[in-house]
């Protein structure tokens, strides 16, 4: 019978590093969002409508970035799970 072996340790390490990066990016984005939310209160006069438009654009971009960060990490974890599941099924077939 043939031997079949796939090493998944590196993939797990990548997912751990990705999770930490997503967490750091989330913290940075949240800090920036908190700062920018306060800009509307500090804006007066003719700048107020301009800032309002920029604030709405930022809010959409902020939400999109958060969604992409979390969905990217989730997709990577799903891929790792699929590889492991494939290995288990392959092992069962070969036994």
What are the segments in which pLDDT stays under 50 over at least 5 consecutive residues?
Answer: none
Write down the CATH class.
Answer: Mainly Alpha
For the terminal residues, how far apart are their CA atoms? Answer: 8 Å
Structural class: mainly alpha
Counted by DSSP, the helix tally is 2
Instruction: Report the helical percentage.
Output: over 70%
Tally of discrete structural domains: 1
Largest sheet: none
Please tally the β strands and state the result: 0
Essential attributes:
single chain; 2 helices; Helix Hairpins; 95 residues; mainly alpha
Provide an overview of this structure.
The protein is mostly helical and 95 residues long. The protein has a single domain (9-94), classed as Helix Hairpins, CATH 1.10.287. Helix content is 86%, strand content 0%. The protein contains two helices and no strands. The protein has helices at 9-42, 47-94. Helix 1 runs antiparallel to helix 2. The chain is rod-shaped, with a radius of gyration of 22 Å.
List the helices and strands and how they pair.
Elements: H1 9-42, H2 47-94
Helix pairs in contact: 1-2
Provide a short characterization of the protein structure.
This protein is mainly alpha-helical and 95 residues long.
């Amino acid at each position: 019978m043939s031997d079949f072996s796939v090493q998944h340790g590196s993939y797990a390490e990548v997912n751990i590093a990705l999770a930490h990066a997503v967490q750091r990016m989330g913290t940075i984005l949240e800090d920036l969002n908190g700062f920018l939310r306060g800009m509307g209160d500090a804006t007066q006069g003719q700048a107020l409508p301009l800032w309002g438009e920029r604030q709405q654009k930022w809010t959409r971009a902020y939400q999109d970035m958060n969604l992409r960060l979390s969905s990217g990490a989730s997709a990577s974890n799903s891929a790792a799970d699929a590889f492991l599941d494939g290995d288990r099924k392959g092992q069962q077939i070969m036994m």
